[in-house]
Amino acid sequence: EPAALIEQAAKQAAKRRAQQQATAVADKIEEILGQGDFYSALTQFLTDLPLFQFAVLKGPIVRMVPTLTWEGGKPTMRTKPRMFWSRVSPFDFYWSPGADNIADADIIERKRLTRNDLNDLIGVPGYDEKAIAALRSGGVV
């Protein structure tokens, strides 16, 4: 019957379109994870787990990075936010005493920052640019 054939063709077309969209999204996620060092951090995390019986994978962390974009047919460097993942050393990760669940604990990470790390935080929402400028100039916040 023609109506059933048209309905079946529409369903097949919708499935093909959904498969194409799913593939495009999977490719985009793979690109984000690859650019954000996720697989390197995951490898380090998996190395820590049997050694220390405790491991920390942190992310996504948003950093501002220079990115080449095309505007008006010309290449232009723009600073854009990008997500990154990292392994945290078990010796630099602490939680509040008496916590029976990590979700309920207060967490402290000891972190060493370079001047470039501080520069990457400028323009990221949630960071005080005046305090970053004071640290970069050798001052204390």
Describe, in plain words, how this protein is organized in 3D:
There is one protein chain. With 141 residues, this protein is α+β, with helices and mostly antiparallel strands. The protein has four helices and four strands. The protein has helices at 2-35, 38-52, 115-121, 129-136, and strands at residues 56-71, 74-88, 93-95, 107-109. The chain has a two-stranded antiparallel ribbon. Strands 3-4 form a two-stranded antiparallel ribbon. The chain is flat, with a radius of gyration of 23 Å. The relative contact order is 0.10.
Categorize the overall geometry.
flat
Distance between the termini: 77 Å
Mean model confidence by pLDDT: 90
Strand order of the largest sheet: 1-2
Structural class: alpha+beta
Strand content: 25-35%
Helix content: 40-55%
Count of discrete alpha- or pi-helical segments spanning 4 or more residues: 4
Encode the helix/strand succession as letters.
HHEEEEHH
Radius of gyration: 23 Å
Largest sheet descriptor: 2 strands, antiparallel
Poorly predicted regions? none
